[in-house]
Sequence to fold (400 residues):
Amino acid sequence: MPVRIPPLAISAFTATSAAGQGRDALVAALRERRSGLVPNDISSRPLPCWIGRVAGIEAMGVPGPLVPLDCRNNRLAWLGLNQDGFLGAARAAVARHGPARVALVLGTSTASIAATEEAYRRYDAATGFPPGLLEPLLHSPHSLGVFVQAVLGTAGPCVTVATACSSSAKVFAQAERLIRHGLADAAVVGGVDTLCDSVLFGFNSLELVSPEPCRPFDVRRRGISIGEAAGFAILERADAAPQAPRLIGWGESSDAHHMSSPHPDGLGARRSMEDALARAGLALREVDYVNLHGTATPKNDEVEAAVIARLFPATTRASSTKGWTGHTLGAAGILEAVIALLALEQGFVPGTLNCDELDPHCGPQLARDNEPLAVRFALSNSFGFGGNNCTLAFAATAVH
Fold:
């Protein structure tokens, strides 16, 4: 089993999604049980489904020097960086530690592919690709990292993690290793993914897109609602921010059972949770809340529910929050990590929106309704295609 790791302070964090721009808006939506899902109006061809769309991105711009990297994904990154005072906090961390000692670790699965789609839609046989869409870095998976690095002025390790839906959960694990091994003194972590045709029609071809708002863990669930989000956090050694919440553990696994289905016995999911608890030095009974991956696909929810029912005591609360935001793919890890941190901060567990009748595989841990709870320790699960699994463990400062 993994050994316990030193905790890291999470000195700043933010998230922007269809449920709200910034922490206060997200908390309000969660408390009011107000979903951000709307009928699909973004795909280039009709596709009857619901999406978690962040309003206003189309009318935005990016800072002048970064116009060559302008695209929907980087606009959402810019919007996310400017919530909750995060941009100032990140630049202050860079000044405090020095640009070369701050790592940047970002997760994404679609990156700027919407810009590449647009370039091909507007391609002209006589004149080629349109001006404004010719920057090679714009069409690379590292577009987001290049953009955020330029905004923040970091000069340390700059890494893009692309492991499907676990991408921006795994950034916490990689950043912790960089700091523990002395390669950085702090890290800005995060993730951004935006809506595009490749995602909408790709998941639809797998028959995984629901024609109605997603219903995690409901017996009548019909698939995912795809969303978009941006989220960021700053990780530093614990003494840098004594009052901040903590990253206390992480677990990663790769069960490689199937390209798009989880292991039927949930072996990878269980391994990632057990490893996170081992690194955190936590017993199962100490976990107050688990934010589940809970995509509302038939197999994912069945397997995850069964693992939670077998592993945790009945007193542990667990829920999926994708009914508020949709499944934000490569940004799901950071978005749901922020929700877990807000549960610690706000003293409540968000329930499972749109779940009317629990799947019989669910145990007593599954919360359908919001519940007041003094959350001391929380886990956040993110499980990607190919069995790329990650679980994060967080603690409120006062209890660790």
